[in-house]
């Protein structure tokens, strides 16, 4: 396919050729030529056109054959005007040609522009396609490269992380080992310390034992010397006793006289005014009876305020100044002390033997006046002990016969075996103790159990040889421990008097006449 410029050139040549044919007649006049220039963009085309020779005047037939049309009849043509006509003809032709050429130029320009635009577009498309192909291939290559790189990177990362994990594991195990080593070191250190402490203790114990042995040897020697001295003293005492027994017969005689005097006095009083007998009905406790003059221990009748029935009580007129009203006695196990609340309230047993006077009577008594409490104990080895409380008071039944004690003294332990304040009375059917358990059911009897306390004089009476290791027996912790059941007990209320300080022998050597005098002054 020929290129557009070639086609253009061809077209131009054709035009030129046709023009040449049209003007063949004037070829002979080649000397006269006319040049035409056509500008197309940067290019310029020059057409050299032959200039026609002035034609000779033709006959009239000639005039009608030309392409140029004439409106005027040929007859009017003048030969003198011919060259100028011819000139005008030619000029017109030239003009036509020029116009034609301009059209051609425009056509060429348009075609060229279109062709150029198409060519450019085509080129651009081609180039774009090429570029696209190149870009695609580049992209493909890049993608492949990237994929390879990514694979390599992933491999490197995997390797790195694996190594890191291994490193971590290694460091962890190292740490663990270090810790274990440290712990073992500590343990060793501790054991060494312990060992040295033990060694020191053993040495100290050895030293102490040696010192104790030495002191024991010294003590033994001292005791041997003391024994020698005491056996001498005993012999002296025996001699003194023998001498004293002769004196005691004298005292017995004095006592006998005194007794006879008292009996005489009692007979006199019994025969006296009736008011003396009525007074017997008004005694509220043994202290009053004693003050009235009765000095013999035994059964007496008392009338306690707010208690309707008169009560028979045992009065101890000897112990610690006398005038003591017994509220409890155990001596042989003849009375059952496993009783309920009502029995302990009302009292039971025989005042001459084992008995419980009754919580209500004791409450009424101790509400009326200030009382002391004396507890006397005896074990199975013949040891005696007592416990005294300067103030003793028993609450009402509504207060669960709560115990209030103060001012403890005595030989039955440095401490009281009864809780001093705030313990309520409990029986097997009334659990008022301070224990989640039921002390009365566990330890038997009725008592001021705490939880469950250090004493219970109303426990089970155990006979001889059965009295040890008995938690539910008759206990007084600070006298014989927690599981020793005592032989006899007495509890009595009265008042502690300075007379208590005097000994029995001192009381007995009093002049009987002084006693008689005091009785008569009543
Ligand atoms: Ca309880």
TrEMBL record:
Chief location of this protein within or outside the cell? secreted
| Originating gene | ANGPT4
Question: Signal peptide: which range, if any?
Answer: 1-22
Q: Please tell me the species this chain comes from.
A: Bos indicus x Bos taurus
The family database entries (CDD domains) matched by this protein are listed as: FReD (cd00087)
Keywords (A to Z) from UniProt: Angiogenesis, Coiled coil, Disulfide bond, Glycoprotein, Secreted, Signal
Q: How does it assemble?
A: Interacts with TEK/TIE2, competing for the same binding site as ANGPT1. Interacts with ITGA5. Interacts with SVEP1/polydom. Interacts with THBD; this interaction significantly inhibits the generation of activated PC and TAFIa/CPB2 by the thrombin/thrombomodulin complex.
Q: Where is the Fibrinogen C-terminal domain?
A: 277-497
- Output the GO biological process annotations, alphabetical, semicolon-separated: angiogenesis; blood coagulation, common pathway; fibrinolysis; platelet aggregation; positive regulation of heterotypic cell-cell adhesion
Which chain positions lie within coiled-coil regions? 188-254
InterPro entries for the chain: ANG-1/2/4, FIB_ANG-like, Fibrinogen-like_C, Fibrinogen_a/b/g_C_1, Fibrinogen_a/b/g_C_dom, Fibrinogen_CS
**Is the keyword Metal-binding in the record?**
no
Sum up the protein's function in the record's words: Binds to TEK/TIE2, competing for the ANGPT1 binding site, and modulating ANGPT1 signaling. Can induce tyrosine phosphorylation of TEK/TIE2 in the absence of ANGPT1. In the absence of angiogenic inducers, such as VEGF, ANGPT2-mediated loosening of cell-matrix contacts may induce endothelial cell apoptosis with consequent vascular regression. In concert with VEGF, it may facilitate endothelial cell migration and proliferation, thus serving as a permissive angiogenic signal. Involved in the regulation of lymphangiogenesis.
Cellular compartments per GO CC: fibrinogen complex
The segment annotated Disordered runs over 51-80
| Name of protein | Angiopoietin-2
| Protein location | Secreted
Q: Which domain of life is it from?
A: Eukaryota
Give one GO term, molecular function aspect. protein-macromolecule adaptor activity
A Pfam family cross-referenced in the UniProt record is Fibrinogen_C
């Amino acid at each position: 396919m020929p290129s557009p410029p070639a086609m253009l050139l061809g077209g131009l040549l054709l035009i030129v050729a046709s023009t040449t044919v049209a003007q063949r007649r004037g070829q002979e006049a080649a000397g006269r030529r006319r040049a035409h220039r056509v500008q197309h963009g940067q290019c310029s085309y020059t057409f050299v056109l032959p200039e026609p020779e002035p034609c000779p005047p033709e006959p009239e037939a000639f005039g009608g054959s030309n392409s140029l049309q004439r409106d005027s009849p040929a007859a009017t043509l003048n030969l003198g005007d011919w060259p100028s006509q011819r000139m005008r003809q030619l000029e017109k032709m030239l003009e036509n040609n020029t116009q034609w050429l301009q059209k051609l130029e425009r056509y060429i320009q348009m075609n060229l522009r279109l062709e150029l635009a198409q060519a450019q577009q085509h080129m651009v498309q081609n180039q774009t396609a090429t570029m696209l192909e190149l870009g695609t291939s580049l992209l493909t290559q890049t993608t492949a490269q990237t994929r390879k790189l990514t694979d390599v990177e992933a491999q490197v990362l995997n390797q790195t992380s694996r190594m890191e994990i291994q490193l971590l594991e290694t460091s962890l195990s190292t740490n663990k080992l270090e810790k274990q080593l440290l712990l073992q070191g500590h343990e060793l250190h501790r054991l060494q310390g312990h060992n040295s402490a033990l060694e020191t203790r053993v040495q100290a114990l050895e030293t102490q034992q040696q010192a104790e042995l030495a002191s024991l040897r010294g003590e033994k020697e001292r005791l041997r010397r003391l024994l020698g001295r005491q056996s001498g003293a005993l012999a002296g005492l025996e001699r003194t006793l023998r001498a004293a027994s002769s004196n005691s017969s004298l005292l017995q005689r004095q006592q006998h006289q005194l007794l006879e005097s008292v009996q005489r006095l009692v007979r006199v009083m019994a025969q006296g005014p009736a008011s003396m007998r009525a007074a017997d009905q008004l005694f509220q406790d043994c202290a009053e009876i004693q003050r009235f003059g009765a000095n013999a221990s035994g059964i007496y009748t008392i009338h306690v305020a707010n208690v309707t029935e008169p009560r028979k009580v045992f009065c101890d007129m000897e112990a610690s100044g006398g005038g003591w009203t017994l509220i409890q006695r155990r001596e042989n196990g003849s009375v059952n002390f496993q009783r309920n609340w009502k029995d302990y309230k009302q009292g039971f047993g025989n005042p001459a033997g084992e008995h419980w006077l009754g919580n209500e009577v004791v409450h009424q008594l101790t509400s009326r006046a200030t009382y002391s409490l004396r507890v006397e104990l005896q074990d199975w080895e013949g040891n005696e002990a007592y416990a005294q409380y300067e103030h003793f008071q028993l609450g009402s039944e509504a207060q669960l016969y709560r115990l209030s004690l103060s001012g403890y003294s005595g030989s039955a332990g440095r401490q009281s075996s009864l809780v001093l304040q705030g313990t309520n009375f409990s029986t097997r059917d009334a659990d008022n103790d301070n224990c989640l358990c039921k002390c009365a059911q566990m330890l038997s009897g009725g008592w001021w159990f705490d939880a469950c306390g250090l004493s219970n004089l109303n426990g089970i009476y155990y006979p001889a040889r059965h009295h040890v290791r008995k938690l539910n027996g008759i206990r007084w912790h600070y006298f014989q421990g927690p599981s020793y059941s005592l032989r006899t007990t007495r509890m009595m209320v009265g008042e502690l008097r300075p007379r208590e300080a005097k000994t029995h022998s001192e009381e007995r050597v009093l002049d009987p006449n002084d006693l008689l005098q005091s009785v008569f002054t009543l």
